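Journal club prep, notes for RB
We'll compare a predicted complex against what the paper describes. Inputs for the MGD case:
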Amino acid sequence: MTVSAVGERIATFCALCISRCGATATVEDGVFTALAPDPTHPTGEALCIKGRVAPELVGHPRRLLHPLERTRPKGDADPGWRRIGWDEALSRTARELGKIASAHGPEAVVFSVASPSTSAISDSAEWIQRLRRAFGSPNLCASMELCGWGRYFATSYTFGESVPGMYLPDLERAGCILWWGYNPAVARLSHATATARALRRGARLVVVDPRRAGLAHKADVWLRVRPGTDGALALAIAGVMVDRGWFDRRFIARWSNGPFLVWPDTGRLLRASELAPGGDPAHYVAWDEAARQPVACDPARPPDDAMADRLALTGAFTVATSVGPVSCRPVFQLMADSCRRHDPASAEAVTGVPAREIERTARLLWEARPVAYYAWSGVEQHTNSTQTARAIAQLYALTGCLDAPGGNVRFPAVPTSVVDGRELLAPEQRAKALGLARRPLGPSRWEFVTSDDLYTAILERQPYPVRGLVGFGANLLLAHADARRGRDALRALDFYAHADLFMNPTAELADIVLPVASPFESEALAVGFEVSAEAASLVQLRRRLVPPRGEARSDLEIVFALAGHLGLGAEFWNGDIDAALRHRLAPSGVTLDALRARPAGIAVPLATVHRKYAEELPGGGARGFPTPSRRIELYSETLLAGGHSPLPAYEDPALGSRARPDLAADFPLILPSAKSTWFCESQHRGLAGLRRRAPDPEVEIHPDTARARGIGEGDWVAIHTPAGSVRARAAFNSSLEPSVVCAQNGWWQSCEEIGAPGHDPFSASGANINLLLRHEPSDPIGGSIPHRSAVCEVTPV
Ligand SMILES: Nc1nc2c(c(=O)[nH]1)N[C@H]1C(S)=C(S)[C@@H](COP(=O)(O)OP(=O)(O)OC[C@H]3O[C@@H](n4cnc5c(=O)[nH]c(N)nc54)[C@H](O)[C@@H]3O)O[C@H]1N2
Ligand SMILES: Nc1nc2c(c(=O)[nH]1)N[C@H]1C(S)=C(S)[C@@H](COP(=O)(O)OP(=O)(O)OC[C@H]3O[C@@H](n4cnc5c(=O)[nH]c(N)nc54)[C@H](O)[C@@H]3O)O[C@H]1N2
Ligand code: SF4
Ligand SMILES: [Mo]
């Protein structure tokens, strides 16, 4: 590799967060010295400050450089780290994991990973999955319940697909962009620059956020929602759209279960077999208004336009069933009724958003179609996240824009072989995923386990003992509630191996720590980027810019080497990473050698196929959606059978001021949090180039709220919840509702270079806001907890 020529400029991309910005790196005398935007790359218009200081991250004096082994007990303040060789580290890891698997089954080993949104784990995520599944563990702890559940899984109960997680906003063609609890100006630069471009060509923008942050300043409508009440807001907007006829009636009648009739007593959808003997039990029933009679609906054959126009969406109809005449209403009518319970005036009282803004938004979403949306952390971290995601999905379905140009679309994917090992995990192992019994429709259905279920399995051995943990990044004790309980749990493990670039409070409890190469020191294959069809078509093999420092290795190398030590080499091309990458690339038509020769990547031009649901199938009928009814499920019988509301329903945040009036006197404020521009989650506080700009943890507070408590701008304050207290500095923000304060998660690390202190993550004198929460109450379906809607109080220190 020729990267040592002075001042060589190399096409690359920054992998430090989900934006994965296209970039040009400068390498001088074998040292990585600068990263700059690469406007020719589809995500390369701009770089954030974190990308620009990347050389500091690579060269940081406290990087982990060698495998380490603990020599002192886990309760000890000093772990007594002893430097060991890779071979020793990996053989001991394999030996300990093997011991646990033979004694308790491979499910007793949990794998944890940093979220690919906050780290370069996206480079190797599917290979880590492959290792976990080949090993036989159904348990991946990846903060899914806090970060991806709503985007990927909750909405799959509506659409059968991940919207907006995989059906991404088509920002190049959107007429109206809806950012709901999502601030790409901080969180995903490529979306922010694409939004700015869309606004320049006249697109409209709606932002739903308790703070006027980022693009909210440029929005046509900024809805200052009270934290955790987004579900009520979505229902109210949808209600206005329904009442005014601002919805795509034909789309709803053809492609959703809106016309299907509902049994009034059981809430189940009526089946054709229940009308008359001989009716098909797989067919639903709708009301044909022209013929004034029920009509069977074959899921595989959606009605044509003419028939769709005849199907009743509203009303009540007496249907002759096998048990006599029954008055049934269509799903859509039930949905409209449920929305009307949140009319704009009552929604204003719950959400704080003025009724006229709700009406204005409903009109804008309708008139400025196509609508493209994204909803993220602002709505993920509450006890009602699943229903909120479903309510926003319902609102979105009304626009008829799903998979239409300018809506949320599935950008084309360059074909590659699936390597995540899904075929390697036996169904009986999959069925052992932690949490499945408690939340059968939750993340563990997809092998993601919550931190709560992990800690319970370790400490209480329920439903079975977990004895081992393999961590690729993942700073669990900072990211999740109940940090002290988490610490007890990690201490109680028989064996814990953690791979990371830096030591962190979670890794401190490991038995073996493995040094990871930064993304700038490792080669990685990116198949597609996320912002547009052009981006999705790009395949790029990121070059190793400089050799890894010390003995650090990429996650990919660690996975392949550990697989060998575990006797799983056959599933990992016997350690030959190039062979594995070739296998992955085979269907794409792009070769590894061609990619190595072109660090800027190779485009595989593919066209986005729209409205795939309407694609005709060979035997007739249409593809529809991958839900049980093959329609968009405004009404979910799956959720109903699980004991949940089949329609999106609003429930107040369980630790909020309305649900817990008993706490209001002592804790009159609400505490959401938000990401920092300067850092990713619990990382980067040790980088002087960043920490200098944001030396202390902050809590945003309305000036009136502060003054009423004798708090001045910049003062240190204590934030209290019923679970505990931590500290931060007051930053005034008059865009907040005065009862809302907004904190930052992830503070623990020091930056010795500028004398900035660390913060004890386990004590009230520290700044770990997740000390302020327990794992209960939680979302009954998805397991999310109120990281963004707990009652609190703020006092001067
Ligand atoms: N710079 C930077 N970029 C990051 C990260 C980082 O830490 N720093 N983290 C990465 C990760 S892991 C993720 S998940 C993404 C997250 O990306 P985002 O979801 O955009 O992250 P946030 O800024 O936390 O939340 C978005 C907005 O939600 C608002 N909000 C808070 N509570 C509520 C609420 O109850 N309702 C509504 N509607 N809004 C609310 C906040 O004020 C905030 O402006 O960012 C990724 N990118
Ligand atoms: N109160 C509150 N709590 C939150 C949130 C919030 O908004 N508010 N956000 C939640 C969200 S959305 C998320 S995603 C979680 C984030 O929680 P985590 O996924 O744990 O993310 P980080 O805190 O960024 O820690 C990532 C760790 O991975 C390491 N790392 C970085 N890159 C790599 C790599 O390439 N390989 C390896 N092996 N390690 C690497 C870092 O050094 C760091 O130690 O926190 C959640 N917790
Ligand atoms: S937004 Fe910043 S940290 Fe994220 S990929 Fe782009 S440059 Fe890197
Ligand atoms: Mo996240």
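Talking point for the session: The longest strand covers residues 724-732.
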